[in-house]
Amino acid sequence: MKSVFVILLSVTLFTGCQSTKKQEDVVTPVAMSHTAVMGISAFYYCANNRWPSSIDQIKEYEVQCKAMPNINVNWSKLKSISNYTSKPNYKLTSKIKQPDDNLIELSSGQIAPVCDGNNAELQSAYVNMYV
Questions:
Q1: Residue 127's closest CA among 37, 26, 25, 23?
Q2: Which of 117, 32, 14, 10 minimizes the C-alpha distance to 77?
Q3: Does residue 86 sit within a domain?
Q4: Tens digit of pLDDT for each residue in 45-80?
Q5: N or C: which end of the chain has fewer CB within 10 A?
Q6: Distances in Å between the alpha carbon of 106 and those of 31, 46, 52, 92?
Q7: What is the pLDDT of residue 17?
Q8: Is residue 8 part of a domain?
Q9: pTM check: above 0.85
Q10: Widest CA span of the chain, in angstroms?
């Protein structure tokens, strides 16, 4: 009987300590957008022999060419929280506000891709997260 009481007490304490409110995942959608933008930018580079000059230009290229059609990018959110530079290499930095008001910085970039026909091979691509 004593062991049943200990098990019941343990289960009660364990479940009582868990929060029933899920914390919104605000980082994953932005990280997925960074990955998509890296691919779209590489295809743009191969088509134009230069990096796109802005997030808007990356979006326009994606709408026209559908380089990454299976990835859903929230372009307005990405533009509002991000800084994009294209010289000398592509770099995208986003500041993501967490529900607890802490900021996470997500940074991605790459050097010129290797272009082969309709293919773009990313070079020195990275995604870093700073808490």
A1: 37
A2: 32
A3: yes
A4: 999 999 999 999 999 999 998 888 888 899 999 999
A5: N
A6: 7, 25, 20, 8
A7: 42
A8: no
A9: no
A10: 76
